[in-house]
Amino acid sequence: MDQDQFSLYDHRKPIQLRAERIAIYRQGEIIEAYGEDNDVYYLFFYKYQFLTAAKATRLRRRSFIEKAFKRGMVFNAPHPFIKELLTSNHPCQILSFDPLLDKLEKQYTPQEKAFILTFFESFIPKKQLFNEIKSVFYHYNRKGQTFLGYKIIRILTDFAPNHSLVEHLANDIKVQKYADLYNKNAEKILSEDFIFAEKVLYHKKDQDSCFQQLAERMEKESRWIDLIALFSYKLTSSPSTDCYNPLIELLETHFDEHETMDILETLASQVPEFLPLQHNLFQHYIKHHKIIDVSRMMKNHDFELNSDQVQIFGNLIEQVDPEEQSLEPEMLHTVLKPIMNMYPEKAGTLLTKYVISLLKTEELSSIQDWLKPFKESHENLQIIRKIDTMEELSDDPDQMQTLGELYYEFRQLKQAIECFSWEMELKPTDPKPQQWLSKIYGEMGMTNESDAYRQMCIKLQKQA
User: Fold this and answer.
1) What's the predicted TM-score (pTM) here?
2) Average of pLDDT values for 333-339?
């Protein structure tokens, strides 16, 4: 099963889903997934802990979930973030509203409960959510905990800004001193109301000071997925080693090499000009023997292999089947040249191997052009001379016999058949073309054709 396939459970009944993307927004994570009938489901997490999931019919405008996928840091599946959340929370079980409330009350502070409830506006009646959040406010209000109550007012202001009760509570003279501090983003408020603080800092994360404060908060709470997402965002918006170095450290700490490589590949496509990232990815490709990717990066970025890496790739190139790992002709230059320069004794074998592969799809003239960069230091190689000869013979009808034999030497049997068939028409009394055609068809397992040409050859020999 693909890594983006998983099961969601509803009263122990599994629902097979395919993850599509994940949004990381403030302290929440939301996975969007599709069912077998293209039904859309959303899985909700708070600081990496699964909350519940819901089947979507429509999303409310300006709701938390809409903001998460528009303003949040969004990553397409398959992605290590999705794998990590699903694995660490398996099995994910859908909870209805009452069990969800019970879970929130047991595991989170009242303020966190109020904030988390805003996630579900598109799935639970807004009035029901509003009443639950309002009850948290009155709980603090009855105890005379004005500041804690005002934290809930701020959540209600974001959730239902035009509600008459919210306007009344927000304008109460008793909370004006807090309102002034919040409106100024006072340091005291940012240090004591982490939900509000993250909202402000996230909104201003393009400012260096806010970015740094946000990163410090995430690090303090060990929210390493958020940190990786945040540093990735920073890298794509303004690449620098200041955000790249801690990003690499986080990736290597929390993900295996293949997962790290997947994330680096996505980032490399977004910031192709940032060489530290490209070089790091290049080293991963080398380590995992990804010949095609190594060749591409050597060509695009002028990266070079050291002597040990040349030896490794020399051995790999010798062993690899060109039909299974097809390299573009131009990319072949970049990986073959350093190997052949260090190990000239391998030049003939390597070039012959790839010329045979190229002959299946390329014209002789194209292969001749492809070989030109190797001529300067390997001009005496037989393979180079033979391709030059074949190109010369290809325009000479009197040389089809020789050209066919060369094609046969390179195991290009169809081209050899064309040459010998032409030779047979030009020289109908010569038995050699029939001999070759009988031989080749026999090797191809085409017994009837092989026997027919053998009989023709015998008949010609008797007539001679």
Assistant:
1) 0.81
2) 85
